[in-house]
Amino acid sequence: MEDFKDDVMLVFRNCRQFNPAGTFPYICADNVEAAFSKEWSRAVEKRLEWGEKRSLQGVLSQLIKEDMWVVVFFLSVPPLTICVPSSFVFRVPVDPVLLQIPTYFDIIPRKDARDLSTIKQKLDADKYDCADGLKADIDLMIHNAVLFNGADSEVGQIAAMAKKRFYELLNIAKSKKRKEAETNGQPAKKLKLK
Questions:
Q1: Domain match, 140 and 86 both
Q2: 135, 110: one domain
Q3: 13-21, long-range: CB within 8 Å, 24+ apart, which pairs?
Q4: Which of 47, 90, 53 is nearest to 173 (CA)?
Q5: Rounded to the nearest 10 degrees, what angle do helices 154-183 and 50-65 cross at?
Q6: Considering the entire predicted model, what is its pTM?
């Protein structure tokens, strides 16, 4: 890519060298170079491939809308099994005021706070250059929940189940992608969703 960029820049330099300043070709070289320079950073920016991004969007959407059965323990009441969305505690950023947990950002630094809506926005805006970045954010979100609430807490148990389900959905997406490739007569290409 850098060789290509160097060749394009050479065209602009040559145009300016052989055409007097202020002439139409000289002015065109300035304008085209400005547009090229503006777009170049986006051209070399690493991003997920379209199919990989769509697969990850599907996994996140499925995780967000799925329900699962959870055993809830209340004081002085026998355990109760209820159906809750597996990701309900992760759907939006933690609001320490609303949730009455004022020490949240003392334990979880703001820069490390993660939730599914933020992760989905980053994915939609092409902020991940590979699936590993998204998985790292999911793992950090789960880690934060366990760190703040404890592994044995209700939130900690939901976090473990949500992580397990995320990786199950990821594996299903990989298998589906391989089967689609084989059905279309293409060699089974490994999907980068590790």
A1: yes
A2: yes
A3: none
A4: 53
A5: 140
A6: 0.66
Q: Which of 161, 149, 157 is nearest to 72 (CA)?
A: 157
Whether residue 94 sits in one domain with residue 26: no
pLDDT in tens, the chain (194 residues): 788 999 999 999 999 999 999 999 999 999 999 999 888 877 776 778 888 899 999 999 988 887 655 555 555 556 555 555 567 789 899 999 999 999 999 999 999 999 999 999 999 998 898 889 999 999 999 999 999 999 999 899 889 989 998 999 999 988 887 777 677 766 555 545 54
Domain limits at 100?
Answer: 50-183
Number of domains in the chain: 2
